[in-house]
C-alpha cells in the first residue's frame, strides 16, 4: 500500500501507542501526581514502585512519571481519537485506569487484560 491509497474496507483502523517517561519533576508535580510516580534507575533504566529499592544506589534513583497515549483512527469522523493514561495504571490487572485529560481532570476507566 502506498501513501494516499485507501485501505481495504475490512482493514483494522490504524492504532498509535506512545509511551513517554518524564523526569526532573518539580515538588509541585511530585505532590500532584504522587500516586502515579515511579522511581527510575538512571544507570540501567529499570523502574521501581518504591523510592528506595533494596540494593540500588540511592543517588541513581530519580522520580519519574510515565504516560502512554493510545489512539486509533475513527473512519466515521475521518480523524484520530485518543486518550493519555498514566502508564503505571495500565500495568494493573482489573484496576481502574486514571486517564489524564487537559489540566488535571481525570477520567476513570476499567480495563480487563486478556
Give the end-to-end Cα distance, rounded to a whole number of Å. Answer: 31 Å
Share in helix: under 10%
Unreliable spans are 93-114
Question: Secondary-structure element order, as H and E?
Answer: EHEEEEHEE
Mean pLDDT: 76
**Assembly state (oligomeric):** single chain
What does this molecule look like?
By secondary structure, the protein is mainly beta. The protein has two helices and seven strands. Strands 1, 2, 3, 4, 5, 6 and 7 form a seven-stranded antiparallel sheet that branches. A hairpin with a 4-residue loop joins strand 4 (61-74) and strand 5. It is elongated.
Quick overview:
The chain has 114 residues and is mostly beta strands. The protein contains 2 helices and 7 strands; from the N terminus they run E-H-E-E-E-E-H-E-E. Strands 1, 2, 3, 4, 5, 6 and 7 form a 7-stranded antiparallel beta sheet that branches.
Structure characteristics:
7 strands; 114 residues; mainly beta; single chain; 7-stranded antiparallel beta sheet
Amino acid at each position: 500500500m502506498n501513501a494516499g491509497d485507501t485501505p481495504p474496507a475490512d482493514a483494522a483502523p490504524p492504532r498509535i501507542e506512545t509511551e513517554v517517561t518524564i523526569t526532573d519533576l518539580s515538588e509541585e508535580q511530585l505532590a500532584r501526581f504522587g500516586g502515579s510516580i515511579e522511581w527510575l534507575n538512571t544507570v540501567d533504566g529499570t523502574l521501581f514502585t518504591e523510592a528506595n529499592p533494596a540494593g540500588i544506589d540511592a543517588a541513581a534513583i530519580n522520580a519519574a512519571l510515565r504516560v502512554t497515549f493510545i489512539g486509533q483512527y475513527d473512519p466515521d469522523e475521518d480523524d484520530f481519537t485518543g486518550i493519555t493514561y498514566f502508564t503505571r495504571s495500565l500495568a494493573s490487572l482489573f484496576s481502574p485506569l486514571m486517564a489524564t485529560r487537559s489540566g488535571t481532570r481525570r477520567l476513570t476507566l476499567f480495563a480487563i487484560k486478556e
